[in-house]
Specification:
By secondary structure, this protein is mainly α. It has one domain. About 70% of the residues lie in helices and about 0% in strands. The chain contains 5 helices and no strands. Helix 1 packs antiparallel against helix 2 and helix 2 packs parallel to helix 5. The protein is rod-shaped and about 85 Å long. The model has no long low-confidence stretch (mean pLDDT about 90).
Length: about 130
């Protein structure tokens, strides 16, 4: 669906730009190969605008995958340790806007917080059977 939206936006923006500046740029129409730089420009702008939304979608899926892994392994401390190691090459604690725009995975801080929240909500899993 997004591809269809992109091509509709591309066609509309090319028609608009060529109507406005086509004669000045000496581009005869959309079938002219001289329009290719404009196609790349419009595609880049579209990608720039949609990147935060794609990243949010991917980040949400990654968070759900993290929760699935915690439920399957029941190792929140190990997961937190892995998130700390990932912080060696990624910023551990970005600001909210920075994370929204640039991060396609949850930040290390958010992953550790989620693991510790999961641990607190599931403490009964860590109590030996004899004590229950």
């Amino acid at each position: 669906m997004l591809i269809v939206i992109f091509f509709v936006f591309l066609r509309w923006s090319l028609d608009w730009a060529l109507t406005r500046w086509g004669a000045k740029w000496q581009v005869r129409g959309i079938e002219d190969t001289a329009v290719i730089p404009l196609v790349f420009l419009v595609g880049s702008l579209f990608g720039f605008v949609t990147t935060p939304f794609f990243n949010t979608h991917i980040r949400t899926n990654e968070f759900e995958a993290d929760m699935y892994g915690l439920n399957a392994s029941r190792q929140p401390d190990g997961f937190a340790q892995a998130a700390i190691h990932l912080g060696e090459y990624r910023k551990m604690s970005p600001g909210p806007v920075e994370e929204w725009i640039f991060f396609d995975h949850p930040s290390g801080r958010n992953r550790i917080r989620a693991a510790m929240r999961w641990k607190a909500e599931n403490l009964q899993l860590f109590i030996p059977k004899a004590e229950q």
